[in-house]
Amino acid sequence: MIAKIGKGENLWGTLTYNQQKVDNENGIVLFTNKIPDVWDRPYSVKFFHQYFEPYLIANNKTEKPVRHISLNPDPEDKVDDKDYREIAQQYMQEMGYGNQPYVVFKHTDIDRTHIHIVTTCVQLNGNKISDRYDHHLSMEACRKLEKQYNLRVTKKNRNSYQNFIFKPVEYTRGNIKAQLSSVLRNMPQTYCFQSMGAYNALLSQFNVTSEEVSGELHGKMKKGLVYFATDKNGKKISPPFKSSLFGKHAGLENILALIEKSRVKMKKDPSKLILKKTIETAMGTSKSEAAFKTKLLAQGIATVIRKNDTGRIYGITFIDHNSKLVWNGSQFGKELSANSFNELWNNLETKPETHSYSNSKEDLSFEKSTEHFSTNNIHKIFEGCFNGLLSSDTNGEQEEQIFESQMKKKQRKRRKK
Prior knowledge:
Blueprint: E1 2-8, H1 11-23, E2 27-33, H2 45-58, E3 66-72, H3 81-94, E4 102-107, E5 114-120, H4 134-148, H5 158-165, H6 176-184, H7 187-190, H8 196-204, E6 208-217, E7 220-229, E8 241-242, H9 252-266, H10 271-285, H11 289-297, E9 301-307, E10 313-320, E11 325-328, H12 338-344, H13 375-382, H14 386-389, H15 398-416
Antiparallel strand pairs: 1-3, 2-4, 3-5, 4-5, 6-7, 7-8, 9-10, 10-11
Helix pairs in contact: 1-2, 1-15, 3-4, 10-11
InterPro entries: Endonuclease_MobA/VirD2
Protein name: Relaxase/Mobilisation nuclease domain-containing protein
Organism: Chryseobacterium rhizoplanae
């Protein structure tokens, strides 16, 4: 089981984030502590907030009094509501929050059900509950609960959890934003890539693509990223989602930083030579493009080929899932460049495969078209997003962050009036 502890100052926004899950029938209130049960009417943010107010008023000097905790069992674990209540109570007791008011929400909007707990670290006397050993205490509590409730141990089942994280986006499953978040939360930090084109080639393995856009903020031009869900051919099939919805890690600034780190790491990586020989062997023993791809895929190597409207190859990228490295063909020399493969398969009679994006300087620039959505629409959606583009969300609660921003805007408007 994985526990994430978010620390913030906006209790109203945190409660709203969770309560809207309930209101939209994507969650339920499982348990409350030091907050009365409601039987004759639905729960509300206002109802919950009033029981936290005495603690917030008593606050001496804690800047971030709100705690937003998520407990995430392994995707294969099946936990019923009774166990979730007991797990939440025991976890809060172990963490020193047993005498605090808190609300336990169960989220059901994605395949992996999990719980969120909202509380405050400020006691009625105004003093803060120490968080100096939060990580250590949380790890110990999770290990105890795993044994007690026969849950999978996170360390031993890391691969199964990663498989869930990197599950390709399926448009028909709905909740595209949550699916994109699952991919973008960890995938960019797991693989190494040396260009935005290589990054997009990697994203294509999970039915995702990104596009650079620009906008004006306080009189200055800023750049950022928007993400789309795609079909298996790379065609955009969803509206654009600005990167700030997924946290700082998915933003352009962080991706460019990862590219620079990757260039240093991959410069002398010994797996490059092995990969090159593997590709050359597959080239020499494959009679078609499809056979070539299949042979490499059997060895954990994905191939992304980009062609123009006439079917000519202008870019090829190899994704080695074993070493977690992404390489453009030209980085191995002319013999594995796009031109070489174009000549090799020039006489193929297969129908040209097209993609809606291009790859770095070698592969031209991003297409400015957005398939179903015009460039103007993208820029309208992107307007004003830079306030949150570089905001950090280390605990994965991107939607909560949106609510906080909305609440602050409303407060500023009220002050102006």
